[in-house]
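#onboarding

Welcome to the new folks! Below is a worked example of what a typical request in this channel looks like: someone posts a single protein sequence, and someone else replies with the predicted structure as tokens. Don't worry about understanding the tokens yet, we'll cover that in week two.

Example request:
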Amino acid sequence: EDPSLERHFKGHRDAVTSVDFSLNKKQLASGSMDSCLMIWSMKPQMRAYRFVGHKDAVMCVQFSPSGHLVASGSRDKTVRLWVPSVKGESTVFKAHTATVRSVHFSSDGQSLVTASDDKTIKVWTVHRQKFLFSLSQHINWVRCARFSPDGRLIVSSSDDKTVKLWDKISRECIHSFCEHEGFVNHVDFHPSGTCIAAAGTDNTVKVWDVRMNRLLQHYQGNAVVNSLSFHPSGSYLVTASNDSTLKILDLLEGRLLYTLHGHQGPATCVAFSRAGDLFASGGSDEQVMVWKTNFDAADYGDVLKTQKSGSSVDGTRRTLQSEMDCGVHLKKTKIQDPGRNHAQQEEMTSLTNTLEHIMGQLDVLTQTVCILEQRLTLTEDKLKECLENQQKIIQNKTS
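Example response:
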């Protein structure tokens, strides 16, 4: 079943810049060029909250992992933390000297990372609301910064056409990805933490492995890509583009699954809910739309089943195939040196083919390890669940 439009929110008076779901999916936050933050209730007939406080356009919004706070960044150079209730109280963080483009909570909710046109990335403590440190190696506006799921790394994207990977502890830049030919609007970590995806004004989405710093996939579109979001399963990616479309990419198959038309004018932002059954989009048409994922129920289950049951060969082959579709493997080298005899040429060709084969096998191994890691995580989670249930049973018996 194809994704379908579920809800339609109208209330912003200018382009929507950012959307995010709360953990329980009861609320959706959106930021807009109209300087307001809106919190929409997913329950029908419930009124929306409009939060006023920023003195200029709100560029980004995000719920804390618990859902008790919403962070926003603005063109007024400040970051605000809001309590998403009727009162809409907020506290202000000031440290950037230009527009704040991006806010993101670490998965434990303790830290906040912000990115700004002042070319820096800043990290803050949420509870003490204290500025901790700056990362400054970008040479142009920083559009986006995100923590890795385990909180050890930070990834950032900039108008200097690079994506940078930082170590949060040492505060060093550990790698720069320079393959984009335009500004890099958005970047995020795959739920496994092993890959990142970046969207750019060069109309592409690129996926890299952050352990080997290798380009895994490359999707070429025909319009600027403004935003992207990974499905919690890690198997899909949704993008928002200037041609007003949302696109859903199947990362296992390495292909475009759906193109969705809903916005009139550029689609500026997109985000999956924490469970993956919904996603929201915003556009320069001032509208916020909520979509039912639909493809999710069957496929998501299959993906997890595949990882559990051990048919990793299939998963591996598909991932590898997508890498090949994206042209990321050794090009066949044609040897045309008239000075060499025929036997030497054949030997060279066969050597090249052998090398390609070895590269292919290495890729398969890498992907298998990746799948094994995911399976291990699933097993650990199940084990934790079993132990917790056992504790509960013991406690109930003793009480």
